[in-house]
Design brief:
The structure holds 2 protein chains of 2 kinds. Helix content of chain A is 28%, strand content 34%. Chain A is an alpha+beta fold. Chain A has a single domain, classed as Translation Initiation Factor IF3 (2-Layer Sandwich), CATH 3.30.110.40. A 4-stranded mixed beta sheet of chain A has the order 1-2-4-3, with helices on one face. In chain A, strand 3 and strand 4 form a beta hairpin. The model of chain A has no long low-confidence stretch (mean pLDDT 93). By secondary structure, chain B is α/β, with parallel strands linked by helices. In chain B, 33% of the residues lie in helices and 17% in strands. Chain B is built from 12 helices and 11 strands. A 6-stranded antiparallel beta sheet of chain B has the order 6-7-9-8-10-11, sandwiched between helices. A 5-stranded parallel beta sheet of chain B has the order 3-2-1-4-5, sandwiched between helices. In chain B, helix 1 packs parallel to helix 3 and helix 1 packs across helix 8. Chain B is elongated and about 80 Å long. The chains are: A alpha+beta, B alpha/beta.
């Protein structure tokens, strides 16, 4: 990560889709190209919905993982 | 070279909006999708809550549609703004608590605002004349155009040939003869067009995508409003109406009894907002008590909780009642029989 690129976190626990997607979208819209955003959620639907939203809108999924009942999705903001 | 015109498409995730957007893309229009989350959308929530739905594919059909089309999709949270649509629908409700015409006016108006803010030229929907009894009739389509403020910038590509020409047509941005004249409830023309475009596995039209068209859900909303004496609601109310058995033994309180593990787990998140009851020593539901309860009411709630536990045939079941401040009380109760739970208690 370059010096000007920042990492953010978004807590979407206890939200159900599409709310985590909406919160991700709204946050990403405020970030700079190259910034990363890690979303943590409890609705496993984010594992399909956030990557779908990223594919549609030109952003990159760097990683997804599940830990216990929580899901983590790491998004890189791209130039769209 | 002529300027490429831009349209924002209302994308519900159903077939019609998918096709309408595709028809415009075929005409060289730049299309982006918009999808409004009212809180009453069927997709998502219950699939995530109920364990029995876990095996169903978790696909947001609006996102899927946008991906098939290769367009951007903007999902907008309108939960708060939508309250006024539901509580005060100018054109009334449909068969249940569905304010379909006001809803369509609201969404087209929101899309119009978005189009203006983002320098888009017109709005498209997948509406078809005569397809829906309330919002998609020949008489109501001009109402949507007029009351939304979109006027002749609202284009319905699937039935455009049945309607007066719109601005995109008169200005030559789109070709009227390359749009369609679908009407009525017959879905075959849309299915044929989908096949022509190569769309497969699209969401099947059945029952709509809104909880407000559901009779049982609508009854629960009316009950909630009646009990509170106000038609206000919050997102948590919407969510809780989607889960559990709703039983109202008396006007001043209601029980929400989890039906399976997924719902029980979800309802645990509300233990600090409601009195909650659970069985001790035998598997059973989590019950939330919405309202004010006397000791006698708490006993009834415990007996009903026991009724839906695996101890329903036992002489006594132990129930722990937890207040919102964390204080607990233990009750040993005889489970109610099925007959003792009056049919009119079920909301």
């Amino acid at each position: 990560m370059e010096i000007n690129q920042l990492h953010y976190e978004l807590d979407a626990r206890r939200m159900f889709c599409p709310m985590p997607v909406i919160r991700t979208q709204d946050k990403v819209n405020t970030l700079q190209v190259g910034d990363t955003l890690e979303v943590v959620a409890t609705d496993p639907g984010v594992l399909s919905d956030i990557p779908a939203w990223c594919r549609i809108n030109g952003h990159k999924i760097l990683n997804t993982r599940e830990v216990d009942d929580e899901v983590f999705v790491l998004v890189e903001v791209c130039d769209t | 070279m002529s300027q490429q015109r831009k349209a924002v498409a209302l994308i519900s995730g159903g077939l019609d909006s998918l096709l309408a957007a595709k028809v415009m893309l075929e005409q060289g229009i730049h299309v982006e999708g918009i999808n409004f989350f009212t809180g009453f959308c069927v997709e998502g929530h219950t699939h995530a809550i109920r364990k029995q739905d876990k095996d169903k594919p978790k696909r947001n059909n609006a996102l899927w549609s946008a991906e098939q089309l290769g367009i951007k999709l903007h999902i907008i949270d309108v939960v708060d703004e939508y309250k006024d649509v539901l509580i005060n629908p100018k054109h009334g409700y449909g068969k249940n608590m569905n304010p379909c015409l006001d809803c369509k006016v609201f969404m087209v108006n929101k899309a119009k605002q978005w189009a203006e803010e983002n320098d888009f030229d017109f709005i498209i929907t997948g509406e078809v004349v005569g397809q829906r009894p309330m919002s998609q009739r020949k008489e109501t389509m001009p109402i949507v155009s007029r009351e939304s403020g979109a006027d002749d910038r609202l284009l319905r590509p699937l039935c455009a040939k049945n309607l007066p020409p719109t601005l995109p047509e008169t200005e030559g941005w789109v070709k009227r003869d390359e749009m369609y004249g679908f009407s009525g409830r017959n879905r075959k023309p849309q299915m044929a067009l989908a096949a022509e475009f190569g769309f497969e596995d699209y969401a099947k039209p059945a029952g709509g995508c809104c909880f407000l068209t559901d009779e049982s859900y609508s009854a629960k909303i009316v009950d909630l409003w009646d009990a509170r004496g106000t038609r206000e609601y919050e997102m948590d109310d919407i969510m809780l109406l989607k889960v559990g058995r709703h039983i109202r033994p008396a006007p001043h309180y209601k029980l929400i009894v989890g039906r399976e593990d997924g719902e029980n787990k979800f309802m645990q998140g509300y233990k600090n907002s409601f009195i909650s009851l659970k069985t001790i020593g035998v598997p059973g539901p989590l019950t939330l008590l919405d309202g004010v309860a006397t000791d006698d009411d708490l006993k009834v709630a415990a007996q009903i909780t026991a009724r839906f536990s695996q101890g329903k045939n036992a002489e006594n079941v132990t129930i722990e009642a937890r207040r919102t401040n964390g204080d607990t009380t233990t009750l040993d109760v005889k489970p109610m029989t099925a007959e003792e739970i009056k049919p009119e208690w079920y909301v």
